[in-house]
């Protein structure tokens, strides 16, 4: 049930950002898209939800709006491993038309 999902800890999320992403922020900050390969517990966390600024959630307000103020908008592709990126880049491009 949705009610059994624990609330997202934005303070802990920001701490994760300061430990993992902020030290290399200059390398990705202006990117319009990113490719992410994580595993273990990090593989279960959508990094697009990690706040890039301190944030607090008011339960009475719209959570999505509040979190979007502390994030950087960019397309994010998640792959299971770094070797998956190499494999995917070696595949021939597909047709832009969908086939059925």
Q: What portion of the residues fall into strands of 2 or more residues?
A: 5-15%
Query: Helix share of residues?
Result: 25-40%
**Helical element count?**
5
Strand order of the largest sheet: 1-2
What is the CA-based Rg, rounded?
A: 17 Å
Q: Count of DSSP E strands?
A: 2
Task: Give the biggest sheet.
Answer: 2 strands, parallel
Q: Could you give the topology of this structure?
A:
Layout: H1 10-20, H2 25-28, E1 33-37, H3 40-43, H4 63-68, E2 75-79, H5 82-90
Parallel strand pairs: 1-2
In short, what is this structure?
The protein has 5 helices and 2 strands, in the order ααβααβα.
Describe the structure.
By secondary structure, the chain is an alpha+beta fold. It has helices spanning 10-20, 25-28, 40-43, 63-68, 82-90; strands at 33-37, 75-79. It has one domain. Strands 1-2 form a two-stranded parallel ribbon. The longest helix is centred in the first third of the chain and has 11 residues, at 10-20. The chain is extended and about 50 Å long.
Throw out a few tags for this protein.
2 strands; alpha+beta; 34% helix; single chain; two-stranded parallel ribbon; 100 residues
């Amino acid at each position: 049930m949705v009610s059994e999902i624990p609330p997202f800890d934005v303070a802990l999320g920001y701490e994760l950002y300061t430990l993992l992403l902020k030290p290399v922020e200059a390398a990705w900050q202006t990117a319009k898209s990113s490719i992410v390969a994580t595993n273990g517990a990090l593989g279960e966390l959508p990094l697009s939800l990690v706040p890039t600024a301190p944030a607090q959630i008011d339960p009475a307000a719209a959570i999505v709006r509040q979190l979007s103020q502390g994030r950087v908008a960019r397309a994010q592709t998640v792959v299971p491993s770094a070797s998956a990126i190499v494999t995917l880049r070696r595949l021939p491009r597909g047709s832009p038309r969908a086939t059925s």
